[in-house]
């Protein structure tokens, strides 16, 4: 039976039986039966097999399925030994969902789509060989990390590595516009090109003059940011990878921009079709000053980017609004308008209830925690990428007079439960850092010079984590408890430490650092003071036990690292970022990212197939009490966990807030009478996140009374 003709199979029905309790118990064994049936009825009869590894490689290369170059960097004997190693690990998927997701979305298929050409071991082998770039020792280490699912490359990397016909290895891109038509035109072309090659695109519109601003002396001629948003939405709809997926983009606007109300209105369900954006995501950058004005229930002024740039000599996004606010208000040369801060705050919450948007970037907090010289002005499609940028200047020939720096995202993730079982935690992280370094080194986005320039100068990567709630449940810790906070603190400190160690080692080997390293707080040593003065070590008995066999650096270790980095530098400008995770967490049989699970038995609607059910990893009678749904959890617990990790993560994290439209009684102390979710609830939680040092809030997902979710993640590329 070919893949195109699969009809009489039992595994979907077996999987669906998980959702039908028997004597009050979840029949988890049905998922194992579904997994076995899937291999017997689907995978085994439809996988093309070969007598030898050599014959398999010869076929895949000759038929243009695999690139030749990366294979030729190794001897055949080494490749055979790598395969023997992988087979000896006896890898097994632990759930039907994991196997189904891998074979439906990641395994290489023949041109007709009727047969599988890869097993999981094949995909791991090709990733390891590709990212090791001819280094046999590194290839073996990478294969070891991936086959034991301690490391998971981002979806574009894992999917495309080694393939002859492939997209880019990077996950997403960030570009900015300046206040002129040449920049807008170049930005639209960049969005078309970047959407074509894959990945979501983030665009900052904050520098654009507002509606009604003068153009060449003509008062009131400016059309504002909304028509530009519509142009980008149409661009993404057109550039959609040959119809394989909808192009994905997010536009960011500063909250003090005069078009902010119209910007938000464009996402409302009842918005006029002339301004409504249906598929484009919205994000806003929020300086500290807004929280202050909203808290005091004061008016706020919105400032014209056109007049701000004329007065300050730099694009609007590069002006510190919090620092300059009073001067901007007092300056008669700055065009401005007045609104109520709390009215705008309520409008944001209403839209988040309705659509999940906008994403919130606490831009001053992001810059306050930023160790790099320069300014962060925006984020990406999943709100975890926070890197400095510099603006470009484009002339009338659409050429760059000044080539600025924009951003490409090179992502990967640690699988927390599996990494905690690593025979060498530090070596595992160092190996992952090497794999991500290859991605940034190999990435060359020629069609968008500002992206290429930023990548060449800064060598940024983003190693993150998934499976935090799974690990808590497995070890009987409540999400948000003192022990869970303690664990999170130590784990992310170790990610920070070991990526610093390896980035320093690469800089030493190559005698090369990222651009402007000498102006960073790494170079002057101040970044390390907090670790030297107060080293992060386990505080609770349970967490001490969990890390008992894992090296935890002391003040002396941090001091030594400080000296090494001051002497030889760092290769990567940025190293850590926590993405939201998507299908890739299912393949890893773990919970997504570091947020709580939403259901004990998650229900996924698969196109053409129907519903597939995924039981929470390690679900049994012992772990059941520790698997509270995110929708039944005080979001301050989630914020506390993220804020703890954020101390060690140099970029951001995709923090989602999970709310019920009808909030459970007793969950929040301020809900004394009304159980319905209100704008006040979201306002309070955003302020709480701000005061905890959270840099960004991704979606607000609302679970409604009719069991639908508002604000679900729709980005396939950035969720690794």
Automatic annotation (TrEMBL):
UniProt xrefs under Gene3D superfamilies: 1.10.1650.20, 3.20.70.20
Keywords linked to the UniProt accession: Allosteric enzyme, ATP-binding, Deoxyribonucleotide synthesis, Disulfide bond, Nucleotide-binding, Oxidoreductase
Gene Ontology biological process terms from the UniProt entry: deoxyribonucleotide biosynthetic process
Pfam families: Ribonuc_red_lgC, Ribonuc_red_lgN, RNR_N
Gene Ontology MF, one: ATP binding
Enzyme Commission code(s) on record: 1.17.4.1
Catalysed reactions, as listed in the record: a 2'-deoxyribonucleoside 5'-diphosphate + [thioredoxin]-disulfide + H2O = a ribonucleoside 5'-diphosphate + [thioredoxin]-dithiol
SUPFAM superfamilies recorded: PFL-like glycyl radical enzymes, R1 subunit of ribonucleotide reductase, N-terminal domain
Superkingdom of origin organism: Bacteria
Cellular component, GO annotation: ribonucleoside-diphosphate reductase complex
Every Ribonucleotide reductase large subunit domain range: 558-580
Transmembrane segments: none
Enzyme class name: oxidoreductase
NCBIfam families: NrdE_NrdA (TIGR02506), RNR_1b_NrdE (TIGR04170)
The family this protein is said to belong to: Belongs to the ribonucleoside diphosphate reductase large chain family.
Job description of the protein: Provides the precursors necessary for DNA synthesis. Catalyzes the biosynthesis of deoxyribonucleotides from the corresponding ribonucleotides.
PANTHER family with a match to the protein in the record: RIBONUCLEOSIDE-DIPHOSPHATE REDUCTASE 2 SUBUNIT ALPHA (PTHR11573:SF30), RIBONUCLEOSIDE-DIPHOSPHATE REDUCTASE LARGE CHAIN (PTHR11573)
Protein name, entry field: Ribonucleoside-diphosphate reductase
Taxonomic placement: Bacteria, Bacillati, Bacillota, Bacilli, Lactobacillales
